[in-house]
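Q: Could you write out the predicted structure for this multi-component system? I'm mainly interested in how the pieces pack against one another.
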Amino acid sequence: DIQVTQSPSSLSASVGDRVTITCRASQNIATYLNWYQQKVGEAPRLLIYSSSILQRGVASRFRGSGSGTDFTLTITSLRPEDFATYFCQQSYTSPLLSFGGGTKVEI
Amino acid sequence: QVTLRESSPALVKPTQTLTLTCTFSGFSLNATGMSLSWIRQPPGKALEWVALIDWDDEKSYSTSLKTRLSISKDTSKNQVTLSMTNVDPMDTATYYCARTRGGFLDFWGQGTQVTVSS
């Protein structure tokens, strides 16, 4: 199975900060990496798929990059509504999927 | 408008079989390339992908859970059902269903909370 490791597990940031979250796969997964945002008490929401493609309706301050084993989600200027937990998910082994452990972004 | 809604018993006893139903609208699970996944999340923990069913009725299961799972679809009712046998308190979680295309999950239900306890 492909393992997906996120870092950090949590971070503290302020409104307006640039925030970077990293996801590392245990083997080459090309660009089969997706990112989700989950707010407390809510279902996850797809932000980015195929490493860098912004899902329709998602703000352009969310940016994804990377290929192979190393991937990054960047929030270019943090807004109050961005405080949430973020998960990456690999789809290289689709239909078998797997998620990272999550990164909690808090004030 | 794509919507999904999960339903299940809130409380299940250990060793029993848990049956979850996902009722969806706004898309067809008969459409080529369309799939539906189940994902679960124990309280305060990460997401775990559980199972998936394809438009052509191909079924896939988590390696760690596959001996206990069965997924099926009823396209006439726009429903997908997941059964999990021999449940344990470790199966306590919120269970989500999500439309799956190209390996990513683009629409999610609100989730259903399941507690396994005697």
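A: Regarding packing and overall arrangement: The interface with chain B takes residues 1, 32, 34, 36, 38, 42-46, 49-50, 55, 87, 89, 91-92, 94-102 of chain A (CB under 8 Å).
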